Amino acid sequence: MLITTLLMTIVMLLVWKLNILWIALFFIVFVPTESIYLSSVLYKFTHGPYVPVVMSAVLMVVMIVWHYVHVKRYKYELKHTLSPAKAEKLLEKHDLMRIPGVGLFYTELVQGIPPIFPHLIEKVPAIHSVLIFVSIKHLHVPHVDAAERFLFRQVEPKEYKVFRCVARYGYRDSIGEEAEDFVVALVESLQYYIRDVNLYSVDEMQNVSYPISRDQSLSRDKPSGRHAIYAEEMITPIRSFSELTTQSNGLSNRLPRFHVTNLLNN
After folding, report:
1. Among the listed residues 167, 120, 33, the one whose alpha carbon sits nearest the alpha carbon of residue 25
2. Which end of the chain is more exposed for a tag (fewer CB within 10 A), N or C?
3. What pLDDT digit, counting tens, does each position of 187-217 carry?
4. Would you say the pTM of this structure is higher than 0.85?
């Protein structure tokens, strides 16, 4: 309990950045109370109170081991990520089938293809026509706006339609509440990304955010400025994303093209 209070104080100071008076009040109230409890346990340690201390020590050891293994695994995957050349060679295998649809592959790596992916291809020589490597990251902010939830990058070569996605959440965001709509929101945001790849340069793409649904996009305030463009008024896709995913691998692998139908007046 005392360790939890100390860690909470650090979070309040560095992450939440609360007023120093509130932090001091929290520290003054809880630290002495828990220190008295801990000292009473240690005072009669041999008469029974050693049980909660031993239980806490066992749990701490388990958590330390779990954290150590987790970090070692992450460093191993980061060191042995698949190079672009190996990834291209792997996707060019003649016995690799591309089936229609979108496949999601979870990884903790923000960049690169995890080393377990080649083993998956060896065991199951079939992947979806669109493949997305998804990572979930928690940021040091309370909430992340839904329009800024997903970040996408396309893995070269582009004709294989492999993407990297980072789903960002704040420490107060509830992933469970959005679990049912997660895939729908991700795929729809990918549609916006594919659209914008055909319209903007890489530098312009840095400031583009993606609404999680068409309704949200229609309800958003129109941006202002001489370069402001309202997405729903500007673009009409020639082909839908579902049509893109059902293309066979032997046909044209180009990304879908889009019309520019209406621009806002400067």
Report:
1. 33
2. C
3. 899 988 888 877 765 555 544 555 554 444 4
4. no
Other Cβ atoms within 10 Å of 4 Cβ, number: 10
Place of tokens 């065991």: 123
The parent domain of residue 224 ranges over 84-260
At 263, list the tokens: 């621009």
Amino acid at 4: T
pLDDT in tens, 165-174: 999 998 888 8
- Classify residue 29: in a domain, yes or no: no
- The domain tally of the chain equals 1
Cis check: omega of the bond before 157, within 30 degrees of 0: yes
Q: Do residues 246 and 129 lie in contact, with contact meaning Cβ atoms separated by under 8 Å?
A: yes
Which residue is associated with the tokens 């293809």? Answer: 113
Tell the residue number behind the tokens 């945001």, with chain if given.
189
Q: Report if residue 12 sits inside a domain.
A: no
Residue 59 lies in a domain: no
Q: Comparing C-alpha atoms, which of 95, 98, 93 is closest to residue 248?
A: 98
